[in-house]
């Protein structure tokens, strides 16, 4: 069992070390739920740190990416909808080392 745990850590550690997390502040332009339960956020002001090649740039919230759990995903979705409905600015933290710019937290600015 210890060997399996060490082997898993060996595979996961490089992925965590290669992550480049950035903060971005903007109002939400769109919330786009996906069929698999994950969702995408689009912002009024795009982040230059997101390496996505298309415009508009999408920031994904996916269970299992950047430490996001199912419960965390549901809370981020709820907060994103609340902020969008109230036309409030949010701050997100995302992984800029991947083109999907996976979000791992969201703060509503009041």
Describe the model.
The structure is a single chain. The chain is an alpha+beta fold and 110 residues long. It has helices at 2-17, 70-86; strands spanning 21-33, 39-43, 59-61, 89-95, 103-108. The protein has a five-stranded antiparallel β-sheet with strand order 3-2-1-4-5, covered by helices on one side. Strand 4 (89-95) and strand 5 (103-108) form a beta hairpin. The model is unreliable at 3-11 (pLDDT under 50).
Which descriptors apply to this entry?
single chain; 110 residues; five-stranded antiparallel β-sheet
Could you give the distance between the termini? Answer: 48 Å
State the order of secondary-structure elements, H for helix, E for strand.
HEEEHEE
Shape: globular
Low-confidence stretches: 3-11
Spatial strand sequence of the major β-sheet: 3-2-1-4-5
DSSP strand tally: 5
Please outline the helices and strands.
Elements (H helix, E strand, L loop, with lengths): L1 H16 L3 E13 L5 E5 L15 E3 L8 H17 L2 E7 L7 E6 L2
Antiparallel strand pairs: 1-2, 1-4, 2-3, 4-5
């Amino acid at each position: 069992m210890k060997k399996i745990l060490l082997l898993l850590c060996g595979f996961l550690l490089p992925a965590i070390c290669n992550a480049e997390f950035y903060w971005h502040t903007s109002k939400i332009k769109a919330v786009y739920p996906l069929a698999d339960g994950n969702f995408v956020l689009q912002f009024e002001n795009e982040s230059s740190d997101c390496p996505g090649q298309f415009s508009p740039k999408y920031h994904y919230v996916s269970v299992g990416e950047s430490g996001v759990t199912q419960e965390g995903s549901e809370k981020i979705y709820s907060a994103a909808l609340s902020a969008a409905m109230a036309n409030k600015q949010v701050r997100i933290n995302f992984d800029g080392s991947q083109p999907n710019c996976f979000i791992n937290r969201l703060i509503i600015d009041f």
